[in-house]
Specification:
The protein is of the alpha+beta class. Helix content is 35%, strand content 12%. The strands form five sheets. The protein has a five-stranded mixed beta sheet with strand order 1-3-4-2-5, sandwiched between helices. A five-stranded mixed beta sheet has the order 6-7-10-9-8, sandwiched between helices. Helix 6 packs antiparallel against helix 7. The longest helix is centred in the middle third of the chain and has 21 residues. Bound molecules: guanosine-5'-triphosphate and magnesium ion. Magnesium ion binds next to loops.
């Protein structure tokens, strides 16, 4: 779900600052050896693909390895609300008394915040031991010892003069106008898709903040369930997340009380005394209910806590104010974590995958095919599976089928969850790259062509087999759940929403076929290529009541093309076309 953008102010060079065409920036870190940040130092990977290494020949890391590294990094990190004006040097010096700092960055989200990663976990104990609970005059504080602090200046007036304020380096998603302008300045449609990806993918800082937020929630949950883990899943980790996307969290209780073989030895077996409830679902509801209460009453910065326990997948939804993330906390949701791993693998296999998915998602959002509110719309997850399926259908295929990934799996990859076989190869280096060399421009055009003519009335989409299946039921759109194969992940989609998607796909395929749309205009100020597809307001009319009203497709396309081609159409006083979309 979209959240307000968080302006990230990076003070020490992280990957986002290396995003400009592989330019290596100096790494001014107070580093220690053997940490994730130190490992990343040598690379020039763009943010977002940082995790995959898909653009270079270095061995690609497994999803589980990355999750573990990020988790440990987050456990050594703290979140600090800072005064608006602060000397970075003094700030670091002050905190360094608790131990060496490996990395830090500042960001803005209704105030200035810093994420500080120490080299050792012990430093956090030291910092906590020197931290006081605020004494309030009119209210009472709940003395919860978290890793989220407030930093105050002891005598602000003396210090203000020598403090240099941190300069904002805003990394919230680009405005629609800015994005369209940069698309117009690209040299090719392929470059446009990559530009959009770079502008919208999660930055290194956003990723760190996501893992840290999970880690802070884990601290609270661990008060009840020591040994539990709160892990991010969904678009925060599957490499398809865009800046501002929600933070899906999974509370993993599986390892609590599991037997190691050495514990199993001897004549006796000791079990915990536990309370029993009639079903797994009720256990999930009870656990989430308590954690929800805990976040609501004691969680610093956790606001708007809603317990949505009767949903198919019970969850606790809340806003984490300091990070700006809308969070969905679930438990007993292991399959979703496995889906994230699968998408991570698909995203890492070929650099065209993420570029295409981001553009299709952006296109869908611009035309209200997807929405941040739950409803009869197609979801981002469904769209991603559609792109993967389409790429499996190319000749030669860009992506392998899930069944093929299963054939490459070794014994260590075997995974059965609730009776569902979720086995696939997890080592990316075992999967051969595709021989398909099609351009992104062609793939985008063909994607719209393919789904503009897909027999949705009788066929189902399955990335497991990579070919159309007969639809097992009458739902308008049927996309087989990759692991629970009897389920349809798009059963919520109405016939009307599907038809809208099909109409827009046809229009978009047709627009991309038109002469002059596939290359930049000489003055670079006309929407062309991907930009032409995103310009929705030019293509839709407004009724006399001021409400948006869609004109017949042919009319809208005609007017869009005229507006693209005609030098004077929709031009403002500067002679520039007014670009307005709903891409946020
Ligand atoms: P965003 O729209 O960017 O949040 O994408 P997302 O992939 O994170 O989607 P969402 O937050 O809706 O769901 C989080 C994860 O839950 C997805 O990535 C999937 O792994 C899983 N998921 C979502 N919807 C379904 C569904 O209908 N069926 C199944 N099996 N899994 C789902
Ligand atoms: Mg999500």
């Amino acid at each position: 779900m979209a959240t307000r953008g968080v302006g990230l102010l990076t003070r020490l060079p992280l990957c986002s600052q290396r995003r400009s065409r592989g330019q290596r920036l100096p790494f001014r870190l107070l580093t220690c050896q053997g940490t994730v940040a130190a490992d990343l130092r040598g690379g020039e990977r763009p943010s977002g693909s940082v995790e995959t290494g898909s653009e270079d020949k270095t061995p690609k890391k497994r999803f589980s390895e990355l999750q573990q590294e990020r988790r440990e990094q987050a456990q050594r990190s703290v979140l600090i609300h800072c005064p608006d004006k602060i000397s970075e040097k003094k700030f670091l010096k002050y905190l360094s008394q608790h131990g060496p700092i490996n990395n830090h960055f500042f960001y803005e989200s209704f105030g200035l915040y810093a994420v500080v990663e120490f080299c050792q976990k012990d430093s956090i104990n030291s910092l906590q031991n020197g931290t006081v609970t605020p004494s309030l005059r009119t209210e009472a504080a709940i003395p919860f010892r978290s890793r989220f602090f407030n930093l105050k200046l002891r005598s602000p007036s003396n210090q203000t003069s020598e403090q240099s304020s941190v300069q904002p380096n805003n990394q919230s998603p680009p405005s629609s106008k800015k994005l369209l302008e940069s698309l117009c300045y690209a040299e090719s449609v392929d470059e446009q898709l990559n530009t959009l990806l770079r502008a919208w993918q999660l930055t290194e800082e956003s990723t760190r903040l996501r893992y840290l937020t999970c880690s802070l929630v884990e601290d609270m949950a661990a008060a009840y369930f020591p040994g539990c883990a709160v892990r991010p899943f969904g678009s925060s980790v599957n490499t398809f997340g865009k800046l501002g996307c929600d933070l899906d969290m999974f509370m993993d209780l599986d390892h609590i009380g599991k037997l190691d073989s050495h514990k199993n030895a001897g004549k006796f077996l000791v079990e915990y005394q536990v309370k029993n409830v009639p079903s797994e679902r009720i256990a999930t509801q009870k656990i989430l209910s308590v954690i929800g209460e805990c976040l609501d009453h004691f969680g610093p910065g956790c606001v708007g806590v809603q317990k949505i326990l009767n949903a198919r997948c019970p969850l606790v939804r809340f806003s984490h104010q300091a990070s700006g993330f809308q969070c969905d906390l679930t438990t007993n949701n292991r399959i979703a974590l496995k889906s994230s791993e699968l998408l991570y693998i698909y995203g890492a296999l070929d650099s065209r995958v993420r570029a295409l998915v981001f553009s299709v998602r952006c296109w869908a959002r611009a035309h209200s095919v997807t929405s941040s509110i739950p409803g009869a719309w197609i979801t981002n997850f469904a769209l991603t599976l559609m792109v993967i399926f389409f790429l499996q259908r190319r000749s030669p295929p860009v992506l392998p089928t899930l069944d093929f990934l299963k054939t490459l799996a070794g014994a260590e990859d075997k995974c059965i969850i609730e009776g569902n076989n979720c086995t696939f190869v997890r080592d990316l280096n075992k999967i051969k790259p595709s021989e398909n060399t099609e351009t992104l421009e062609l793939l985008l055009k063909e994607f719209f062509e393919y789904f503009g003519n897909f027999a949705f009335n009788k066929n189902s989409i399955s990335i497991r087999q990579g070919r159309e299946q007969n639809k097992p039921d009458s739902s308008p759109l049927h996309i087989q759940n990759p692991f629970e194969t009897s389920l349809n992940i798009s059963r919520n989609v109405s016939q009307g929403q599907l038809q809208k998607f099909v109409d827009l796909a046809r229009e978009s395929a047709w627009i991309l076929e038109q002469e002059g749309v596939d290359h930049p205009s000489p003055s670079h100020n006309q929407p062309w290529g991907l930009a032409a597809l995103l310009v929705s307001s030019l293509a839709s009319g407004k009724s006399s009541s001021g409400k948006k009203r869609r004109r017949p497709a042919s009319e809208r396309v005609k007017s869009l093309l005229e507006s693209i081609r005609g030098p004077s159409a929709d031009a403002n006083a500067d002679g520039k076309r007014t670009l307005s979309t709903q891409t946020q």
